[in-house]
Design goal:
Elements lengths: L6 H21 L11 H5 L3 E5 L2 E4 H21 L8 H21 L8 H16 L14 H29 L11
Antiparallel strand pairs: 1-2
């Protein structure tokens, strides 16, 4: 594992995490106990502030904090990749190989390079989104209905795109009626 030898960098990273936790904690509204919560209020995102007609919610802020955390982590890990991997690089290579193996088993293709960027990004995003709630002051963005809806839309439009790209238009349409044409939806 790469050590941070520069104390200034370490202090800046710790200050960044503390600042994100404090800002997120300040933005969180206190929960008031009610007899029966309204379902629409329960799943609606908390609006923190507005910029013109755009409402910035706590989900957006926490998602941006998560993206910043992932970006800084990718930069710190990516700049120190070695031919002989350390603990962190070995763990990340194992995760990427597990995702490639999953793609190979589910899709049935040997060349996973077409699907790996999308599936890997979704895997890291979902994993980080579910774990970020463990950090003080940060909440997971997945309970907000908009986050899973956005991911579902990405997958919904990606499936036909990758199907046509790998099989061609005719092959993609033909797979809907295999093995017999009565299978047509």
């Amino acid at each position: 594992m790469q050590r941070i030898n520069n104390p200034r960098t370490l202090v800046l990273l710790i200050a960044l995490v503390i600042a994100l936790a404090v800002v997120s904690n300040l933005l969180e509204e206190p929960v008031e106990e009610t007899a029966e919560p309204d379902v629409a209020e329960e799943i609606a995102p908390d609006v923190v502030f507005t910029v013109g007609p755009l409402e910035v919610t706590s989900t957006v802020i926490n998602t941006w904090a998560m993206m910043l955390l992932l970006g800084v982590g990718a930069y710190l890990i990516g700049r120190n990749l070695k031919l002989r991997p350390g603990l962190v690089q070995n763990m990340l290579e194992w995760i990427v190989e597990a995702i490639e193996r999953l793609i190979r088993e589910m899709v049935g293709v040997e060349d996973t390079s077409i699907f790996l960027p999308l599936v890997g990004t979704l895997a890291f995003f979902i994993g980080t989104a579910n774990l970020i709630g463990l950090l003080p002051g940060l909440k997971s963005p997945t309970p907000d209905i908009n986050t899973p809806l956005a991911m579902a839309l990405v997958v919904l439009f990606s499936v036909p795109y990758f199907g046509i790209r790998t099989r061609g238009l005719w092959g993609y349409l033909k797979h809907y009626v295999e093995p017999i044409f009565l299978m047509l939806p």
